[in-house]
Amino acid sequence: MPLGLRTLLAVTACSLGLATAAAAQNAIELKPSPQQVHWQDLQFGVIVHFGTNTFLDREWGDGTASPKVFNPDRVDPGQWARAAKAAGANYLVLVAKHHDGFALWPTEQSDYSVKASPWLGGKGDLVQMTEQAVRKEGLEFGIYLSPWDRHEPRYADTAAYDKYYVGQLDELAQHYGPLVEWWLDGAGSAGHVYDFKKYLGELRTYQSNALVFADVALFDYGDIRWVGQEDGHIRGENWNVIDRHGELRWRPVEVDTPLHTLQWFWHPDSDQTLKSVDELVDIWENSVGRGGQLMLGIAPNRHGVLPEADVARLKALGAALQARYGIEHDLARQHLGGDANADAALDGNADTFWSAAEGAHHGVLEVDFAKPITVDRALSMEWLNDGQQVEKYAIEAWENGAWTVVAQAEAIGHMKIDRFTPVTTTKLRLNILSSAGTARIREFQLFDVGGMR
Q: Looking at residue 372, which CATH number applies to its domain?
């Protein structure tokens, strides 16, 4: 999982718009696929690590652990899903097999799985249980299947292992419903050559809408790219189109970080490593709030449930985000109105949007109020279906009879939260200073976060 990204870049599958992307001559011509648009709107997901490592106080299993150690007595994927939902997450990815090779479903490809464990008498299927619980909570479901397998003897034979991996992929892709995301972490695989083209062709046969996470090393196959580290922050301007060896692709970024500092699996000292609400809000603001996707790692304990402290922390995160950015706190909805174009970006409905003049390379979205308001955050969302257009913008407030810049940057993208010194004003605007094409803004929201504390 994300652990391996420190040592080897992850792996992935072709996006459905590849032919169009390949023909494009510049970044502005590139557009996301409908699947990418949908995925980016999910904004926040969790990834669950649970397996033999949980029972052995390990982050990295070596493949020698006995299946007998896996014997949770109160497995409750419904609890995981409810906790994720309370935090504000919209999808859950389960690590179905980590690098130790132990499978959480009764795979027919190997005996090294839950069917060889005492859990539920060897009759359990944790992938199925999780998938059903996740969908019951209204979340979307994804799967992580590590290519590196430290247990499987066939790993030493490339062709034999490719067949083995595809067999496991087929089981997961065919029997657990539609998948929103597929993780192919390449940790520890230096020197091993995988037939990724075959893997991903097989995946697309059964899961044509699943987006595949990968680093830019597997540029031709990935739908989603890694941010480059695991501290939860996007740094610099975030552009959805990136260049790799002279080729351009639409590759939105996913930011992965665990709920516990440096721990993806549960450990006995987990009560000492839990990140604070302030840390988690800062991570959200610097991932989702910078146009990326947040993938937060959660880890059940040896009973198969999230610790009470983790559940409480996730709930507190969701409450803190709602207190800061809940639609009921959006001051822009108090605008005077009357301009149908502007109103479309101020209505709290991300399916409507304000548009600059067709063909223009700049535009102004102004919000007027009947009485002064105090603001210290602006949240902007660009309509990306026709590509990422905004190249430079400013947030400006009306002060002393003139417009004053309170924030300025380049990329807006899926979502951009600008933080600035509180300003009290009756007028505030988003000034698109430069755009490659016609700028369209789905939402322009204003908040007084300091005033909520």
A: 2.60.120.260
pLDDT tens digits along 123-139: 999 999 999 999 999 99
Distance of CA 286 to the CA centre of its chain: 12
Distance CA 418, CA 206 (A): 41
Residue 142 tokens read as 């994804």
Same domain, 378 and 438: yes
Question: In the numeric block, which tokens belong to residue 440?
Answer: 């369209």
Same domain for 30 and 127, yes or no, is yes
Tally of domains in the chain: 2
Sheet holding 293-298, edge to edge: 211-213, 181-183, 140-145, 91-97, 44-48, 293-298, 253-258, 225-226
Query: Per residue in 389-415, pLDDT tens?
Result: 999 999 999 999 999 999 999 999 999
Same domain, 354 and 298: no
Classify 118 as helix, strand or coil. coil
CA distance 354 to 58: 51
Instruction: Give the domain range for residue 426.
Output: 330-452
Interatomic CA distance for residues 130 and 363, integer angstroms: 47
pTM, 2 dp: 0.93
Cβ-in-10-Å burial (0-12, 13-18, 19+) of 6 comes to exposed
Chain segment 141-154, per-residue pLDDT in tens? 999 999 999 999 99
> In this structure, are 221 and 359 located in the same domain?
no
Residue 96 neighbours by CB under 8 Å, 6+ apart: 103, 104, 105, 127, 143, 144, 145, 172
DSSP H or E segment with residue 379: strand 363-382
